[in-house]
């Protein structure tokens, strides 16, 4: 679908996200020939820079993140970029933006707010006061979308005063990842799995996002956030929704988002008693990752001395529906872990009876592993006969490697999502009520941690987190896949 001509305004235009992800994503689409000739990117920031000054920063800070930049394309691409110096909270400075934008109602106008969330409301207000929030404009909101239910509601209410829900794109970049969309294809483009996709046949689901990196230079943000807010409330819950949702009637935004909302609202609420048994929080200590020594979280630059922010969280969730009642969903995420991987493991029930000279317990239950990172693919684990004499069964893998199977170039998650914003496709963005439902479920955990003053358990960098996380799943007679 050809894109309509647009002005894309990036608030936080000189920030980390713009430099590392957004401008490189737009460059790729420029090279692919997707951008209309007149399309422009207007980067907004506080620095009093000219466009030339800004482009020097782009050259040193953003260009290194572009995969294989070609000089000719790059020279053409940066002609689309303009820099506007503006103080987001001072409406008087918006004149510069008014002057920069093309006041043509047939153009699509996008305001991408890659800023701290406390600025969202003021920016929207100022766009409204200056007449820039037109019916053909769209607003993109970057996480963190609140730090609890009250602040998420406030963001929704304040942005909602200026923009209609159909104009609001709440980004969760995990939904832009190829494998996540492939999960939709797997579930609803095949007849095979749907009849089995329920409590009668599935014993448990594990969702892991493990990172090797530490907090790096993001301590200012991260120490007020922690793994629960930074990863679980959004990325992991979105993955859980895609795994667990009922078949939507179509791929249209509201059909998919209604189905996800139903999952979020069906998550069993935690109580202080269930929380004490079903959640583990950890914080990394010094250790080795890839053979290199790495410091403790508390020794990272700018870390508060006795920070009790978690860098790891694991929990057991349940979904109170006919489809899922009694099926545990184990979610886990952490920094400085043994490996970088993001995967979903769906384990099926064991066979009821062995006809072979092997006990039933020697049969590995079937499992489907959906890999998002580092490589993208699916493995279906089956029992098969080992070759040769006799009848001995062993686990074997049916493997679908997306890179091998489809040779077409891949898109980064931000690239895909930016294209969707430009096309006006909302399916892969969170709706306001979804965001609130996710926070509503998370809130008792936040309260519990606060009241209980229960500090995270230390774990050594380069491991799979605190031993308590293994014990959490071990109590149900299970193991995390990497620990089997
Ligand atoms: C971001 C978090 O949303 O996702 C980061 O703020 C995290 O802390 C990142 O590192 C992980 O994303 P990805 O795509 O690298 O798995």
TrEMBL record:
Pathway: Carbohydrate degradation; pentose phosphate pathway; D-ribulose 5-phosphate from D-glucose 6-phosphate (oxidative stage): step 1/3. GO terms for cellular component: cytosol. It comes from the Bacteria. It is an enzyme of class 1 (oxidoreductase). Pfam families: G6PD_C, G6PD_N. Its EC number is 1.1.1.49. Belongs to the glucose-6-phosphate dehydrogenase family. Catalyzes the oxidation of glucose 6-phosphate to 6-phosphogluconolactone. PANTHER family: GLUCOSE-6-PHOSPHATE 1-DEHYDROGENASE, GLUCOSE-6-PHOSPHATE 1-DEHYDROGENASE G6PD. This is Glucose-6-phosphate 1-dehydrogenase. It comes from Massilia psychrophila.
């Amino acid at each position: 679908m050809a894109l309509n001509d647009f002005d894309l305004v990036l608030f936080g235009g000189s920030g980390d996200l713009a430099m590392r992800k957004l401008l490189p994503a737009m460059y790729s689409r420029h090279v692919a020939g997707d951008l209309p000739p007149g399309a422009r990117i207007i980067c907004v920031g506080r620095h009093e820079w000219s466009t030339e000054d800004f482009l020097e920063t782009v050259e040193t800070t953003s260009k290194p993140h572009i995969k294989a930049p070609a000089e000719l394309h790059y020279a053409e691409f940066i002609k689309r970029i303009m820099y506007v110096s503006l103080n987001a909270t001072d409406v008087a400075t918006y004149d510069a933006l008014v002057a920069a934008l093309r006041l043509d109602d047939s153009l699509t106008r996008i305001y991408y707010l890659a800023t701290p969330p406390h600025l969202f409301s003021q920016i929207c207000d100022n766009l409204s006061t200056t007449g820039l929030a037109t019916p053909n404009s769209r607003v993109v909101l970057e996480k963190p979308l609140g730090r609890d239910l009250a602040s998420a509601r406030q963001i929704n209410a304040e942005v909602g005063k200026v923009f209609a829900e159909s104009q609001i794109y709440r980004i969760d970049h995990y939904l832009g990842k190829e494998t996540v969309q492939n999960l939709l294809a797997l579930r609803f483009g095949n007849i095979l799995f749907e009849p089995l996709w329920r409590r009668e046949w599935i014993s448990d689901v594990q969702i892991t996002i493990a990172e090797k990196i530490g907090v790096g230079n993001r301590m200012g943000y991260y120490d007020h956030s922690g793994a629960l807010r930074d990863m679980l409330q959004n990325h992991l819950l979105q993955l859980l929704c895609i795994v667990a949702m009922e078949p939507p009637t179509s791929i249209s935004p509201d059909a998919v988002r209604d189905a996800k909302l139903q999952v979020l609202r069906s998550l069993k609420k935690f109580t202080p008693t269930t929380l004490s048994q079903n959640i583990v929080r950890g914080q990394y200590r010094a250790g080795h990752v890839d053979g290199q020594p790495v410091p403790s979280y508390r020794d990272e630059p700018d870390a508060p001395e006795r920070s009790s922010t978690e860098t790891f969280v694991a929990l057991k969730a349940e979904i109170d529906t006919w489809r899922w009642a009694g099926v545990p969903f184990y979610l886990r995420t952490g920094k400085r872990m043994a490996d970088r991987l993001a995967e979903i493991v769906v384990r099926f029930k064991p066979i009821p009876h062995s006809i072979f000279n092997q006990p039933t317990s020697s049969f590995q239950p079937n499992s489907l592993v959906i890999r998002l990172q580092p490589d993208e693919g699916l493995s279906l684990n089956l029992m098969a006969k080992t070759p040769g004499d006799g009848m001995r069964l062993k686990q074997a893998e049916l493997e679908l490697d997306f890179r091998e199977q489809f040779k077409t170039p891949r898109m980064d998650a931000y690239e895909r999502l930016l294209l969707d914003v430009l096309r006006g496709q909302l399916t892969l963005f969170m709706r306001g009520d979804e965001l609130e439902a996710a926070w509503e479920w998370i809130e008792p955990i936040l309260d519990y941690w606060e009241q209980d003053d229960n500090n995270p358990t230390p774990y050594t960098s380069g491991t799979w987190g605190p031993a308590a996380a293994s014990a959490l799943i071990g109590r149900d007679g299970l193991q995390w896949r990497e620990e089997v």
